[in-house]
Design brief:
mainly alpha, Cytochrome Bc1 Complex, Chain D, domain 2, binds heme C
């Protein structure tokens, strides 16, 4: 019994000496018996690394990235208005490309054609079903309308036309407007647009 107490006291002392170091600062690595995935193959930020061809561990932000906290909701491409003003933007504020135009045709045919018709003259299928008031989008008033105002009409609707903002993302709204402008242009051709050598045949 005497020895037991002695051994017990020594064991306690030993455990306290070895395990009781927690909280002390140490520059040495901790001994991990169960590493719990503490160490992994990974790229550390701001360090060079050969994994990517450019030798950096960090990637550059993808194009179109908006800095956290940066205001963007009032950009013309989301409002159709000049930032800070209520004026509508005159022209489409995104680059008009062939892809945008093709997308616009497709989106127009899905969202607008049933009412406004393939030529945008207001002769869609809905006319047959008593919807006789659909606007002819070749009216001079609409041809002269700023692109931003048409954007606003698509987003919020106007008069008897419902709002399509919830169905059509802003980029697609501009695509539709680009396509609508092409339809306008198709109706506004003048003789000067025809190549000279064909003008004579047309006049006949
Ligand atoms: C459900 C039928 C319907 C659909 C779909 C529709 N419109 Fe209309 N749109 C109308 C009607 C009806 C009017 C006339 C509203 C009025 O004057 O009260 C109108 C008017 C307009 C006007 C003229 C607004 C003005 O200032 O007088 C524009 C521009 C227009 N639509 C564009 C579009 C575009 C672009 C789309 C597709 C995204 C579209 N519409 C889809 C029914 C529709």
């Amino acid at each position: 019994m005497r020895y037991f107490l002695l051994i017990f006291a020594l064991t306690v002392a030993l455990v306290v000496v070895i395990a009781g170091q927690r909280g002390d600062l140490s520059r040495r690595r901790p001994i991990s018996i169960i590493p719990d995935m503490d160490k992994q193959m990974k790229l550390l930020p701001q360090k060079d690394d050969t994994f990517f061809a450019d030798g950096r561990s960090s990637r550059l932000p993808v194009p179109g990235t908006i800095a956290q906290g940066a205001p963007y909701q009032d950009w013309p491409q989301y409002t159709g208005r000049v930032t800070g003003l209520t004026n509508f933007v005159e022209n489409i504020p995104v680059p008009v490309t062939e892809q945008l135009m093709a997308r616009g045709k497709q989106r127009y045919e899905i969202n607008c054609l049933p009412c406004h018709g393939p030529q945008a003259d207001g002769n869609g299928i809905t006319k047959k079903y008593a919807m006789a008031v659909v606007a002819n989008l070749h009216e001079k008033r609409i041809v002269l309308m700023p692109d931003g105002e048409i954007f606003n009409t698509i987003t919020h609707g106007k008069g008897l036309m419902g709002a399509y903002g919830a169905n059509i993302v802003p980029e697609d709204r501009w695509a539709i407007i680009a396509y609508l402008r092409a339809l306008h242009r198709a109706q506004l051709g003048v003789m000067e647009d025809v190549p000279v050598e064909h003008q004579a045949t047309l006049k006949k």
